[in-house]
Design brief:
With 127 residues, this protein is mainly α. It contains six helices and no strands. Helix 1 packs antiparallel against helix 2 and helix 4 (61-75) crosses helix 6. The longest helix is centred in the first third of the chain and has 30 residues, at 2-31. The chain is globular and about 55 Å long.
């Protein structure tokens, strides 16, 4: 009797992975779009969809940090000081606010924690 239940659980996991993969691909495709004028609203929507996903929350704040660091890398913004990181963090949140894209409170907490991890990783903390 447990085999059908296990099969349903496996199918559910596979479906979650496919959905998460699709959301991740959407963000990547938007970031690689040569027509930069249409990117911000779509990026805000796709990022919110990815970051609000339960799978992102299961992966935790280090996953959020990895996504944010990938964006920093792709934008080639110099982040060498805490002030520059704080400025980028404001820009990151402004992306969602400007396009009226809502993030859950839980997602915002993960993002906050992610920026703390990035600050530590880049050795920018003010001791």
């Amino acid at each position: 009797m447990t085999q059908p239940t296990n099969q349903l659980k496996l199918e559910d996991v596979i479906e979650k992975i496919k959905s998460f993969d699709s959301k991740l691909k959407s963000v990547a495709q938007i970031c690689n779009n040569p027509n930069q004028s249409v990117v911000p609203p779509y990026l805000a929507i796709a990022l919110a969809d990815l970051l609000n996903d339960p799978s992102s929350k299961e992966l935790g704040s280090l996953w959020f940090a990895m996504v944010i660091k990938a964006i920093i890398f792709e934008t080639e913004l110099p982040i060498n000081t805490l002030e520059e990181l704080d400025k980028f963090e404001d820009m990151f949140y402004d992306l969602f606010d400007k396009h009226n894209v809502k993030l859950s409170d839980e997602t915002e907490q993960y993002i906050h924690d992610a920026f703390w991890h990035i600050e530590i990783d880049l050795n920018l903390s003010e001791d």
